[in-house]
C-alpha cells in the first residue's frame, strides 16, 4: 500500500469504495467527502492522505490540528476498507501528531468499523467518551413566537466575529473535541455557502453584548449553538431551536440533525427535552503522545 495526497480527481473511485462499507460510513463519505476534506480545517485538502492498493483506494485519513498549540490533534475522518488500511492510516496520523508536538490524538469509530477498532487497540488507543447522533422530524405546523428575553437578532453580514468567537469559546470551554476557534476561522464557517442563513441566529442584549447563537447548515445539521453562562436557564436555547425548526420546515427541510458528546449532560438534556431522538453512536479513542511526569 502507499499513501498519496488527496486529489478531487480521486473522488469517483473513493465514492465507489464507499459502496462496500457499512451504512454510517456510506452516509459520511457520499454526503460530505468533497466539502469536508477541502475545507479550511483540513488545510483546503492538504491535510488528507489516501491509501492505495493495486491502483485502487482502500481508505483515507484527514487531520485537524486546530488546537495543536494546546496539545490537541484529531484524525477526522479516518475511513478504511480493512484492518491493514486502517493500521497504515492510524500510523500516519500518530506520526503527524507527534511531528506537530501534540499531547494526544483522537479518532472516532462506529461499531461496524471492526478493522479500524482493532488497529486503534493495537496502536495504544483507549476509548474516552462517545458522540451521540440525534435527529428530530420537523412538525408540519410551527408557530412564530417572538424570542423575548430582552435580546435582539443581528444579521449574519453584521456579525463581529471577535465577539462571537469569545462567546463560542466560553460556551464550549468544557466540551470535549471542541478546540478554541479564532475569529477568522469562525468567519469562514459562518460565511460559507453551506450555512442556512435564515435559520442560523446570533442574539445580542440591549448593551450590544453577544449572548446566544445557533449555527445550522443547509442540510439541516446543527453545527453548533451556545448561550452565555449568565443567560442560561431561561429557555433561550430552546427558543432558538424552535425558531430554527420553523424556518427549516418553511424552507423544505423535513428534519434537523445534531451531535452531542455523551459527557455533555446539559446539551444532552436540552436535545431530549426538545424531542431529538438517538440514531447512532461513535466511540472516541485517544492515544496519549507524551509520557506523564512522575
TrEMBL record:
<dbReference type="Pfam" id="PF00583">
    <property type="entry name" value="Acetyltransf_1"/>
</dbReference>
<dbReference type="InterPro" id="IPR000182">
    <property type="entry name" value="GNAT_dom"/>
</dbReference>
<dbReference type="GO" id="GO:0016746">
    <property type="term" value="F:acyltransferase activity"/>
</dbReference>
<keyword id="KW-0012">Acyltransferase</keyword>
<protein>
    <submittedName>
        <fullName>GNAT family N-acetyltransferase</fullName>
        <ecNumber>2.3.1.-</ecNumber>
    </submittedName>
</protein>
<feature type="domain" description="N-acetyltransferase">
    <location>
        <begin position="150"/>
        <end position="294"/>
    </location>
</feature>
<dbReference type="InterPro" id="IPR016181">
    <property type="entry name" value="Acyl_CoA_acyltransferase"/>
</dbReference>
<keyword id="KW-0808">Transferase</keyword>
Amino acid at each position: 500500500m502507499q499513501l498519496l495526497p488527496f486529489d478531487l480527481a480521486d473522488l469517483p473511485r473513493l465514492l465507489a469504495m464507499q459502496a462496500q462499507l457499512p451504512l454510517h460510513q456510506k452516509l459520511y463519505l457520499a454526503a460530505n467527502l468533497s466539502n469536508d476534506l477541502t475545507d479550511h480545517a483540513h488545510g483546503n485538502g492538504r491535510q488528507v492522505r489516501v491509501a492505495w492498493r493495486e491502483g485502487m483506494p482502500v481508505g483515507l485519513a484527514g487531520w485537524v490540528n486546530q488546537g495543536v498549540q494546546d496539545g490537541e490533534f484529531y484524525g477526522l475522518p479516518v475511513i478504511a476498507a480493512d484492518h491493514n488500511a486502517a493500521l497504515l492510516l492510524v500510523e500516519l496520523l500518530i506520526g503527524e501528531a507527534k511531528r506537530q508536538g501534540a499531547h494526544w490524538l483522537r479518532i472516532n469509530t462506529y461499531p461496524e468499523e471492526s478493522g479500524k477498532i482493532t488497529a486503534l487497540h493495537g496502536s495504544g488507543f483507549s476509548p474516552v467518551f462517545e458522540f451521540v447522533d440525534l435527529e428530530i422530524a420537523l412538525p408540519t405546523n410551527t408557530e412564530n413566537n417572538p424570542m423575548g428575553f430582552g435580546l435582539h437578532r443581528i444579521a449574519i453580514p453584521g456579525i463581529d466575529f471577535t465577539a462571537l468567537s469569545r462567546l463560542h469559546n466560553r460556551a464550549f470551554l468544557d466540551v470535549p473535541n471542541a478546540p478554541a476557534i479564532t475569529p477568522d476561522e469562525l468567519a469562514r464557517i459562518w460565511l460559507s455557502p453551506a450555512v442556512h442563513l435564515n435559520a442560523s441566529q446570533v442574539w445580542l442584549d440591549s448593551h450590544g453584548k453577544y449572548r446566544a447563537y445557533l449555527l445550522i447548515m443547509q442540510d439541516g445539521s446543527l453545527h453548533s449553538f451556545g448561550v452565555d453562562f449568565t443567560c442560561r436557564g431561561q429557555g433561550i436555547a430552546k427558543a432558538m431551536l424552535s425558531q430554527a425548526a420553523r424556518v427549516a420546515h418553511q424552507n423544505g427541510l423535513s428534519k434537523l440533525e445534531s451531535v452531542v458528546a455523551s459527557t455533555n449532560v446539559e446539551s444532552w438534556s436540552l436535545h431530549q427535552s426538545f424531542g431529538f431522538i438517538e440514531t447512532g453512536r461513535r466511540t472516541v479513542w485517544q492515544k496519549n503522545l507524551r509520557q506523564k511526569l512522575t
